[in-house]
Design brief:
Number of strands of chain A: 0
Strand order of the largest sheet of chain B: 1-2-3-4
Oligomer: heterodimer
Distance between the termini of chain A: 13 Å
CATH class of the largest domain in chain A: Mainly Alpha
Number of domains of chain A: 2
CATH architecture of the largest domain in chain B: Orthogonal Bundle
CATH superfamily of the largest domain in chain A: MetI-like
Shape of chain A: globular
Order of helices and strands of chain A: HHHHHHHHHHHHHHH
Number of strands of chain B: 4
Radius of gyration of chain B: 27 Å
CATH architecture of the largest domain in chain A: Orthogonal Bundle
Number of helices of chain B: 13
Helix content of chain A: over 70%
Largest sheet of chain B: 4 strands, antiparallel
CATH topology of the largest domain in chain B: MetI-like fold
Radius of gyration of chain A: 25 Å
Number of helices of chain A: 15
Shape of chain B: globular
Structural class of chain B: alpha+beta
Largest interface: A-B, 50 and 39 residues
Strand content of chain A: under 5%
Structural class of chain A: mainly alpha
Distance between the termini of chain B: 41 Å
């Protein structure tokens, strides 16, 4: 088990290296570099910069170097924990990202927890009460849940809340807590605001997981060991929860690998629509304003979160399934 | 007298059963798939719906009532107008909306005036357009009988553009993006997955690692970064193709894996060995013997991939980094609904979103039906 985890952990830096190169290629792709954008902002505000000054700046930032050298510069800085300085905010990128990283992870994790809390019981109910009214209702909800884009659902809920209840459901904190230091009350306030975006973010996944759970459990419920247990007089609830559910959960665990990363990157859209403090909107702004090193830093963080998500699922799966653990 | 009649009944039904069985036994695989699919009523209905949508894709101008780019600041935020078909006999009309500026909020408020009727007619002459880019035409499905008047079946947006017509053109873009992106994914997936599964060894290893790498990419952020990297001066057509390529870049991996799995399983089958012993060339074995056995499966999988692509395109465009105005797609239309104050004022701006949901739902249902039908021998 330990060997397996160590093996996977050793792969992590290598993957990040590959990603960092791909990301650098992408952020370098738009025409012009960040100095062109910087000079444009300066001249827009009335300051003129001479060609020599630009050349000097270009040299200081290493922008006159070949592509690979620039990449190595960037990589070296990254390894030292230096993500560069944001053009737009005039602050270190690492600081900007750090401020919102916690809430980004919190949103995805809460969404993940909500998904499982809803999907597993719903799947069990649907499978044990097959063709009941609620089962059909859940199927319909599932189909619509999968078909509705995240941002659409967020828009509809925000519109209903605003138009009919006169409340605004954007942001993550009430005004009185926004700048307050962390306390239990602030945490409570955060949770009170977080559940709705988390639910919106997780709805498609919940629908999909409910369907998987239902199908898995239906397969298990027809097996002879269930009939035997029932014939022996085991109470229905105990029987279902104890054996078939446990087996049906197994394939569900393997979905974590794609689901958790999907939540991280999907939170971008929900956070943008609902105006949440999240690295998603930050990335969007950085991309639109060509604040390329900030964008690169955030993309790298996303890649890191994605890899960690996959890793966690691999470990969970290995813990549940000895065949993987033993390397068979 | 009774016994023989029962006996003869039995023989008749026996004969019928065998006839039906024989029909099944000699039916081609595609026929079996179709028979199975036909039983799935919801999927059949959805397939009909999709055919209607693709009719719109072929010629949105015919279904549009007017030019989708025509603006008129004095006709902004007009609510949905209902089409009435009868006015003492067949005489379709639409009640005119009259605007009055609210003296307090200074906002235009539209009320319908049932007394003033705008006469409309089907298959009427209106805005000229080019059919399939080949013929000049000016017949529209529906339009005001008096071409100087404008009708707003689904309301108008902040620039006074007709939402109905815009949705028609948006349907063309969004549905095409889905189809083209999936076609590209299928080509990549089948070719690379096929190579990987058929040849195995080192090539297989490289392609598998590539798939793993692509599958662990944070999709939405990377797509956004890629679309942000597209040159600003590209034409809408270029952007459109770039977006489809970007979307299929990750989309092919699932299919690639599946195709590889099938190839690995089929490689050892007797009929492949037989074909090889009979001296068939490699390409012939792949294309004539192996691909047809899982073609229906590929079709089912790709029909389930189209809605995912549509949602992705819509999300990208909604965030402002996909298809860009003046091009119209469902996501571009939904950008108008981004502001919650505007939305409270003009909730009909969410209608394009409903179209997205219906289309995606239809694709999913058809895909599910096809998936069940694609293996007609299962029960």
């Amino acid at each position: 088990m330990t060997r397996y985890i160590v093996q996977r952990l050793l792969l992590l830096p290598f993957l990040l290296l590959v990603y960092s190169f791909v990301i650098f290629v992408i952020i370098q792709a738009p025409p012009g570099d960040f100095l062109t954008a910087y000079v444009a902002t300066l001249s827009a505000s009335g300051t003129s910069v001479s060609a020599e000054q630009i050349e000097a700046l270009r040299h200081t930032y290493g922008l006159d170097q070949p592509f690979v050298v620039q990449y190595l510069y960037w990589l070296r800085n990254l390894l030292a924990g230096n993500f560069g300085v944001s053009l737009e905010y005039h602050r270190p990128n690492a600081e900007l990202i750090e401020e919102q990283l916690g809430l980004t992870v919190a949103l995805a994790v809460m969404s993940f927890v909500l998904t499982w809390l809803i999907a597993v019981p719903a799947g069990i109910y649907s499978a044990t009460h097959r063709r009941s009214v609620l089962d059909h209702l859940l199927t319909v909800i599932n189909y619509i849940g999968v078909a509705t884009p995240n941002f659409m659902l967020a828009l509809i809920l925000m519109w209903i809340a605003f138009a009919y209840f006169g409340i605004s459901v954007t942001g993550l904190f009430s005004p009185e807590y926004a700048d307050a230091p962390w306390s239990l009350a602030k945490l409570g306030d955060l949770l009170a605001h977080l559940w709705l975006p988390a639910l919106i973010l997780g709805i498609a996944g919940t629908a999909r997981l409910t369907r998987i759970m239902r199908a898995n459990l239906l397969d298990e419920l027809n097996k002879p060991y269930v009939v035997t247990a029932r014939a022996k007089g085991l109470r229905e609830w105990r029987l279902v929860l104890r054996y078939p559910v446990r087996l049906a959960l197994n394939p569900l665990v393997s979905t974590i690998g794609w689901y958790l990363p999907q939540l991280f990157s999907g939170s971008l859209i929900v956070a943008t629509v609902m105006n949440l403090p999240n690295i998603g909107p930050l990335l969007l702004r950085a991309l639109v304003n060509q604040d390329m090193y900030l964008a690169g830093g955030i993309l790298l963080i996303y890649s890191f979160l994605t890899i960690v998500g996959t890793l966690l699922s691999d470990i969970a799966l290995a813990m549940m399934d000895p065949r993987i653990r033993m390397g068979a | 007298m009774r016994a023989p009649s029962i006996a003869s009944d039995a023989t008749v039904s026996d004969v019928q059963v065998t006839a039906a069985e024989e029909r099944i036994a000699v039916a081609s695989n595609w026929q079996l798939v179709w028979w199975r699919f036909r039983k799935h009523h919801l999927a059949l209905f959805s397939a009909g719906l999709l055919i209607c949508l693709y009719c719109v894709v072929i010629c949105p101008a015919f279904f549009a009532t007017q030019d989708p780019q025509r603006t008129d600041a004095r006709q902004a935020f007009i609510p949905v107008q209902t089409l009435h078909l009868f006015d003492g006999g067949w005489n379709p009309w639409i009640p005119a909306t009259v605007g009055k500026r609210n003296p307090v909020t200074l906002r235009m408020e539209w009320t319908t005036d049932p007394q003033r009727k705008i006469r409309v007619s089907f298959f009427t002459r209106g805005e000229p357009y080019r059919l399939f880019g080949l013929f000049d035409a000016n017949i529209h499905l529906l339009g005001a009988t008096d071409p100087t008047q404008r009708i707003f079946l689904l309301g108008s947006d902040r620039l006074g553009r007709d939402q109905w017509s815009r949705i028609m053109y948006g349907t063309q873009t969004s549905m095409t993006v889905g189809l083209v992106a999936v076609t590209l994914s299928v080509i990549f997936g089948v070719v690379l997955g096929g190579i990987s599964g058929y040849f195995g060894g080192f090539i297989d290893l490289v392609i598998q690692r590539l798939i793993e790498l692509l599958q662990s990419v944070p999709t939405i952020p990377i797509w956004l970064a890629l679309s942000a990297a597209l040159p600003r001066d590209w034409t809408p057509i270029q952007v459109f193709f770039a977006i489809t390529v970007i979307l299929s870049l990750v989309g092919w991996t699932t299919l690639g894996r599946e195709v590889r799995g099938r190839f690995l399983a089929l490689r050892e089958e007797d009929f492949v060995l037989a074909a090889r012993l009979a001296g068939a060339r490699r390409m012939r074995i792949i294309l004539r013997h192996m691909v047809p056995t899982f073609l229906s499966h590929i079709i089912a999988t790709s029909s389930l991939a189209i809605p995912v692509m549509i949602i992705n395109e819509t999300s990208l465009s909604f965030l402002g980094l996909g298809i860009r105005p003046p091009a119209i797609s469902w996501g571009v239309l939904l950008q108008e609904a981004q502001n919650i104050q505007t939305l409270a004022l003009a909730p009909w701006l969410l209608i394009p979103g409903l179209v997205v949901i219906v289309a995606v739902l239809a694709f999913n249902l058809v895909g599910d039906g096809l998936r069940d039908a694609s293996d007609p021998y299962s029960h």
